[in-house]
Amino acid sequence: MSDLETRPPTSEAGNGLKRNALGTGGIAFLVISAAAPLTVMAGVAPVAIGIGGIGAPMGYVIAGAVLLVFAAAFMAMTKHVKAAGGFYTYITLAMGKTVGLASAILAIVSYNCLQIGVYGLFAVQTQAMLRTLFGLDVPWPLVALVAIAAVWFLGYRGIDVGAKVLGVLLIAETAILAIMGAGILAHGGAEGISFDSFAPEHAFTPGVLAILAICFAAFMGFESTVLYRREARDPDKSVPRATYIAVGFMSVFYAFIVWTVIQAYGNGNVVTAAGQLADGMFFATINQYVGPWAEVVMYLLIVTSVYASQLAFHNAINRYVYMLAKDGILPTFLARTHPKYKSPHRAGQIQTVLAAVVILICAIANADPYKHLLIWVNTPGIVGIVALQGLVSVAAFVYLRRNPAAVTNRLLLPVSIASAVLLFGVVALIAINIELLTFADSLTNAILLAVTPIVFLVGLLIARRLRTARPDVFARIGSFETHDS
Predict the structure, then answer these.
(1) Is the pLDDT of residue 219 over 80?
(2) How many angstroms separate the first and last alpha carbons of the chain?
(3) Are 17 and 339 spatial neighbours (Cβ–Cβ below 8 Å)?
(4) What is the mean pLDDT of residues 397-410?
(5) Alpha-carbon torsion (158, 160, 163, 164), positive or negative
(6) I want to staple 33 with a disulfide (CB 3.0 to 4.6 A). Which of 121, 180, 217, 308 is the partner?
(7) Exposed, middle or buried, 193 (CB in 10 Å: 0-12/13-18/19+)?
(8) pLDDT tens for each residue of 85-113
(9) Would residue 482 count as lying in a domain?
């Protein structure tokens, strides 16, 4: 028999990621969980309503539409990129090894900013849940460290185990939001049901444009579908399907939920309510329209929602590190997978230690877990990921121009250009309205915005250095053949 026939069907021979572990649904669960629907709704949507007014639902529709355009350009390359390096391999294939390595380093830093920063939100939400339901007051650093350990444990056990847990948690958090929306509509809201949110005079106001940064942040992580290519069943079909499902679902669901909350208070009162209730708005709403039991459930589920997000980002980061180690950029010990679970467990250990160190530094510095850890650490991550999405759009255009046979639809080239223009435009909007995300002074905002270009520049310099000092390693950047032996 040939080597191909004797190779184990569920995992790569020897050291490698687990094969055929994820279908379309599993991948979709992973990336939607990274966005944490309940968290971005209950924790951040009140801010969007307070700034964007009754047109806030359209912010999520606009963000979803832009990202669907991006997905069309992104997925045009997916059949031609066989490695699981995400942005790294896509950009390298079209724009060269120097830009590719810089994008990989930016992706790792950005995803770590998103993942580690959200431990601040986890701590705050869990503290509130324990205090409200059980009368317990637990120090936030302890809560965050326990969460880090729990995320490491499931990440260590393998992607299929994590996907199953994320699937259950995602269904639960989606269900509680849907129950709240149904309860509001069943009661006719505060003043009857109105569709004014979607009228042009409300949907395209300066306030709605100002909240686009908040709306795009609600989709963070969806693009990581391609990171699971090697672990997917029929990746040429399952990865694109999961990508479109994730973006489409989040866009419609977010807009629907925000619209129903507006109905709960009425067009004339909802902005005031959002300002007064802040992050308690959704809890007060579900208590009024569904019942106290539902408020208790939402308190519990928002904690699991943040946990699901952490696990999904942990998995994404580990796969970036794994691919860079496979290509020889990072130490080779990070390219080993667990002999039983086939998880990139060594990369996971490094990420876990890094998260714990950041938490301990924040605790020693007496930093605020919400303002400093969540908001300030997350912001460079949001900017970095959206910028990388724009760069991938450029890469798609370059690749399709060079490879006419890959152009299966004549609209793909203009779609790629449109996607790049829209996404870099979003980066500009985030920069202009950054104070809406950070509530910080101008110097702090300038530093947070500078992280992305500085990291990318450092990546370029590292790549240039490798090209002259270690040409053998430089030649392996973004290798697209199967590395695993």
Answers:
(1) yes
(2) 18
(3) no
(4) 85
(5) negative
(6) 308
(7) exposed
(8) 578 888 998 999 999 999 999 999 999 99
(9) no
Tracing tokens 């912010």 back to the chain, one arrives at 59
458: domain range? 3-476
Cα gap 316→122, rounded to integer Å: 19
CA distance 157 to 66: 35
405 phi, psi to nearest 5 deg: -65, -25
CA distance 260 to 442: 35
Return the percent helix, strand and coil in the chain, to nearest 5: 80, 0, 20
At 212, is the pLDDT very low, low, confident or very high (cuts 50, 70, 90)?
Answer: confident
Measured CA to CA, the distance from residue 243 to residue 475 in angstroms comes to: 31
Helix (H, G, I), strand (E, B) or coil at 242: helix
Assign 298 a pLDDT band (cuts: 50, 70, 90): very high
Q: Which residue has the tokens 């930093």?
A: 367
Contact between 305 and 36 under an 8 Å Cβ cutoff? The reply is yes
Flag whether 484 is in a domain.
no
Name the residue with tokens 């003043």. 191
**In which band, very low, low, confident or very high, does the pLDDT at 163 lie, cut at 50, 70 and 90?**
low
Residue 55 has a pLDDT of: 95
- 34-64, pLDDT tens digit by residue? 778 998 899 889 989 999 999 999 999 999 9
Alpha helix ranges (H) inside 76-96 = 87-95
Specify the number of domains making up the chain.
1
Closest CA to 327 of 102, 78, 85: 85
| Contact partners, residue 36, CB within 8 Å, separation at least 6 | 118, 173, 305, 306, 308, 309
The span from the CA of 452 to the CA of 197, in Å, is 34
Please report the DSSP string for 141-210 in residue order.
HHHHHHHHHHHHHHHHH-HHHHHHHHHHHHHHHHHHHHHHHHHHHHTTTTT----GGGSHHHHTSHHHHH
User: What are the φ/ψ torsions at residue 11 (nearest 5 degrees)?
Assistant: -150, 155
Q: Is residue 481 part of a domain?
A: no
280-292 b/e (C-beta count within 10 Å ≥ 16 → b): ebbbebbbbbbee
Interacting residues of 171 by C-beta distance below 8 A, sequence separation 6+: none
Q: How many helices (H) and strands (E) does the chain have?
A: 22, 0
Q: Is the separation of the CB atoms in 484 and 17 below 8 Å? A: yes
Q: Which residue has the tokens 């947070």?
A: 448
CATH number at residue 247: 1.20.1740.10
